[in-house]
Design goal:
Layout lengths: L1 H19 L5 H22 L4 H22 L2 H19 L1
Length: 95
């Protein structure tokens, strides 16, 4: 878990650094989104091992965050990823 934390911090720091230099890299944004998602799921499983509803809520919040960032930065791939993520989450909850 410590290595994942280091990667999340490094990617977020790189995003902040490059955004101040007005250099935008979609790879950094996607990396940060996926690493933050994995980090959140790991934290949730560590503290609340069997609470699946909390996991569903956290996943939905991540997809909502992806949607918001995609709309704000006009990045279509994040918006589509958010829609696909919510779709599969709803399917998973129903089934």
């Amino acid at each position: 878990m410590m290595i994942l934390t280091i990667f999340v911090v490094c990617v977020l720091a790189a995003i902040i650094y490059f955004s101040k230099k007005e250099f935008f890299s979609p790879l950094l944004l996607v990396s940060a989104a996926v690493l933050l998602l994995i980090f959140t799921v790991e934290i949730q499983q560590f503290f609340l091992e069997s609470d699946r509803y909390t996991l569903y809520a956290l996943l939905f919040l991540h997809f909502l965050l992806w949607w918001g960032i995609g709309r704000k930065l006009r990045q279509l791939y994040l918006t589509i990823s958010a829609y696909i993520g919510v779709f599969f989450l709803v399917i998973y909850i129903i089934i």
